[in-house]
Request: fold
Amino acid sequence: MSCDRWLDESDTTSPTLDVARTAEANVFTETVTPLVRTARAGGATVDSLTKAFLAAIEKTYGVAEARQASAAVGFIQLLAAEGGSVGAEEAAKLYGGPTKVHAEAVRKAAREGNLIVVKDGLGSIYFPVWQFGVRGGTVAGLREVLEVLRQHPHYDDLLPLTFFLNPAARLGGRSPLAALRSGKAEEIAAVRVLAATAVE
Reply:
């Protein structure tokens, strides 16, 4: 799916949708939060709670709904990994480093394939923070690897996240992100080779 169209739009939703989302979120939070607190006090782990939550959805709503919920949990976990994800305004600060950069700059960089951006089902866009360098810009080699990944016949928003975050045997069990963070030319080259293999 191309992100060009929605990157040209504001990453805010309508006031009516915001009110509806807030009301729905409040009902969910008021219902679930006490249960989660009680379970935590009883020694339940996040993993066990997630499994119980999905099992309850399957029992109540059916298998199809449970699969959608499972996918949503996976989506949230990807966005939360390695420091989480932020909107365009905050991403601009990370991208610019000491130099002031506007939100449109990160949207443009994403349209050009130089940044990773993900859109959720409600129209909001998120930039994973781990792609940015400590002094602005991006981690070494990110753009070159993205260029390779975008050749994948089934490229979508989530492919870069799963590629960069998952451990790879060819990288000695490390993730491509960890290899890029080393800053070593040979490590970056190895990630590019791995990306090319994923495209084939």
Notes: The CA atoms of residues 47 and 82 lie 18 Å apart. Residues 8-82 form one domain. The longest strand covers residues 125-128. The longest helix spans residues 15-41.
